[in-house]
Amino acid sequence: MDTPTPPRTPERVEHFLMTEEVLWLSTFGTDGFPGLVPIWFSWDGEAILIVSKPHAEKVADMRADARVMVALGNAEEDFDVGLIEARAELVDTPADRFLPETHWVKYAADLEGIGLTREEYLRAYSQAVRLVPVRYLGWHGRTEPASASATRRQPRRRPSCRVTMPRVSGSQRTSSRPTSRMMPAMRSGSG
Q1: What are phi and psi of 109, to 5 degrees?
Q2: Domains in the chain, please, with CATH?
Q3: The dihedral of CA 125, 126, 127, 133: what is its sign?
Q4: Which of 93, 111, 130, 188 pairs as cysteine with 98 (C-beta 3.0–4.6 A)?
Q5: 132, containing H or E segment
Q6: CA 150 to CA 90: how far, in whole Å?
Q7: What are the two backbone dihedrals, phi and then psi, of residue 52, each rounded to the nearest 5 degrees?
Q8: Cβ-contact 73, 82 below 8 angstroms
Q9: Which backbone phi and psi does 113 adopt, to 5 degrees?
């Protein structure tokens, strides 16, 4: 059986993969609800590389169903984002050999900020995962998204108007807090 040829990465999605610090990973939850988590990542030119706590819900989700969706980009820039449908491969390679050195350079300040050494991080986040793109989907509100301009090395323009919502004082607020019947228990998002 021939392995299908992976799709060519569009320039604007490649730009996101090379410049974004966080991606949003969506999995099919084993409880029937989708899971969505922000996660650090690296791009090796063929797959997105992530690590996770081995017993995290997203890992259980990917074991049960390898189909995932990834979102990258800046929703504040007129929804200039890239979406990637991918297949998750849980890898047996130890995380310290799985992640490239560029990953540690990219997240050095973040690790320091949360008080973790590289070794502590690798002990906690020991499950290596490759996300292999199957299909790329563009998503934007402009005819030409800002990321398309950025890939041609043109300066990025900020939107010229901003919408602000009026502040509501405490006496004007009404309770919109859902009751437990209306809102299911939240899924744990750690790791």
Answers
A1: -65, -40
A2: 11-152 (2.30.110.10)
A3: positive
A4: 93
A5: strand 127-139
A6: 33
A7: -145, 165
A8: yes
A9: -65, -30
* pLDDT reported for residue 170: 44
Residue 129 near residue 90, CB atoms below 8 Å: yes
CA 186/CA 5 separation, integer angstroms: 39
- CB of 129 within 8 A of CB of 51? yes
pTM recorded for the entire structure: 0.73
Q: How far apart are CA 122 and CA 18, in angstroms?
A: 22
Q: How far is CA 131 from CA 30, 148, 183, 187, in A?
A: 19, 24, 31, 22
Digitized pLDDT (tens) for each residue of the chain, 191 residues in all: 555 666 788 888 888 999 999 999 999 998 999 999 999 999 999 999 999 999 999 999 999 999 999 999 877 767 778 899 999 999 999 999 999 999 999 999 999 999 999 999 999 999 999 999 999 987 665 556 666 666 555 444 433 333 333 444 444 434 333 333 333 444 455 56
Q: What is the DSSP string of 37-56?
A: EEEE-EE-SS-EEEEE-TT-
Number of C-beta neighbours around residue 110 at 10 A = 13
Whether residue 157 contacts residue 144, with contact meaning beta carbons closer than 8 Å, is answered with no
